[in-house]
Amino acid sequence: MMDSALSALASLAQPSLLIKLAIGVVAGLVMGLIPGLGGTGAVAILLPVTFGMDPEQAFALLIGALAVVHTSDTVSAVLLGAPGSASASVTMLDGYAMARKGQAKRALSLAFLSSMAGGVIGALGLTLAIPLARPLVLSFASPELFMLTVLGVSLAAVLSRGNVVKGLLSGFLGLLLGMVGTSPTTAEERFTFGSLFLGDGLSLVAVALGIFGLAEIASRVGQRTVDKDMVTLGGGWGSGIVEWLKHWSQVIRGALIGIWAGVLPGVGATAGTWLAYGQAVATAKDKRQFGKGDPRRIVGPESANNSVEAGDLIPTLLFGIPGGVPSAMLLGMLLTYGIQPGPSIVTEHESLMYLIVWCFAIASVVGAFLCFLATPSLAKLTKVPFAVLGAGLLVIMLLGAFQEGGQIGDLWIMIVLGAVGWLMKATDTPRAPFLIGFVLAIPMERYYYLTESLYDGFDWVTRPGVLVFLAVLIAPALWALFKKVRGGSQANADLGHRGDVEIAHGEDDESEEGALKDSVWSLGMAVGMTIVFAAALMVSQGFSSEAKLMPTLVGAGGLITGLILVFNELRARRAGGLRGPSWTHDVTLALRMFGGMAIFLVLVMLGGYLFAVCLLALPSLLPVDLPTGLLQS
């Protein structure tokens, strides 16, 4: 164990690994400044770059970005009052208030040092988890591994803030799309409809960039202005450093809370930072300065939002349960390299695990140091409208999706899923369960097939590990049912308080507050997804008995969940009045963007890339306003 850790540290002396780590750190710092991207956007954009690299170089690049993205997202939160990610919204409350008093450097120094400490403590927690969990992981057989995959998708859906039914439906949809292609048990093609392109399955890069990257750009492309009253850098760095040392206990408590929030699937950085904020409020004797620039409400959440990413890696690497979207992408990349999480990675790739630990710790320190040096320059990027940044990100995403397989079909998949992701975000449907289900679909089917082959009937259910996982799976549902039964008058009494908490929490990385969730859009999405599952259930009946087992289960589960959601949507609209489709300016911009991209791909298929670029460049040369969303965005 110690040999593996020292070997991983020695490997970082290689120039190639150091360069990849440095590139990842710089990319993560820049992406953290852009509102809405966060760790999800950073990993999604950098994921295509890793193809063709060795696993060590790929993870050095991605971990470098993931470790620091929550360090730089504080810059826009403090200077603009517009957090770079949802988890930075907690820091914004007191950080922005401090900056408006002319103490921006004080607030930023508190945040940078706390993020650095949170990353280092999180890496230490991951280091300690490896030897402690090793005996447990090595005792797992195929039944336990199958239950872990089920647990990963289910908990991500159940624990997603917002509508649990929508979260489950999102997870089922991800599982269904993950089964497109060749069956891992019979080598039979499923849901390909005779297409050679779909025979290899959907690309993880295209899916991740579409459901999160394009959807985020489409939802924010209308942001063409910035705050003209942005505060300037003021106040000394030194006072913030001294104050950070004074509140060291809050830093440690926040980091430990972040690790715990990362271990729990579906909780994420946003909830972790609010938990750290809650403990800061609960343990404070003097609360008069809260919301007015109190340092305790900066150091606790900032240490939590970095350590939560390290805690997220614990269940991802050791048990194959991604706790959030970035870790789901990392898990997908592990599977792409043929590295199975769990017993395989513990026994055969232990040095890679420790390399991840070292990269996370080093990146956290280097990222904080660079933020101190580059904050004046980084602050200028916050003045650039997202509509301008989005155009460049769009080009990067298109190139990234195309370079993996070199097929234009991946771009079509990305555009279609980008529209689906935008609709899911607008209707308040969690997207994290979708990606986690997509990544875990094939491992889930493979482990279930092995379990059925090795055990008679359902004898495997009686194994102690399986029973424990079943209890963990059922516990949240029973708790929710218990709270619902207890509801009644108590729920009415707590309504005002709960509303305050939900407003305070703001947007979540995985379950955003949907702008169209109360309109016909939400009902239409529920009906559309229900039809998809019904069609998949019918098509799967034509497969062989082994190949149709999981598609049938997923199709039936998705159909039942979809019908429940449709019923809930109809009942809610009958009680509150049916709203028509909310055709806002943002909807128009999103439609133009996706329509423009589709037109571009059609032109590429008809006349080639150069022909398409020249044709779409005409609006900039002629006084004609062509309806190409790609240019107008």
TrEMBL record:
UniProt keyword Transmembrane helix present: yes
Stretches assigned to the DUF112 domain: 19-435
PANTHER family per the UniProt record, alphabetical: TRICARBOXYLIC TRANSPORT PROTEIN
Name of protein: Membrane protein
Annotated transmembrane regions: 21-47, 59-86, 107-130, 136-160, 167-187, 193-215, 317-339, 351-372, 384-402, 432-449, 461-482, 520-543, 549-568, 589-618
Keywords: Membrane, Transmembrane, Transmembrane helix
InterPro entries in UniProt: DUF112_TM (IPR002823)
Gene source species: Arsenicicoccus piscis
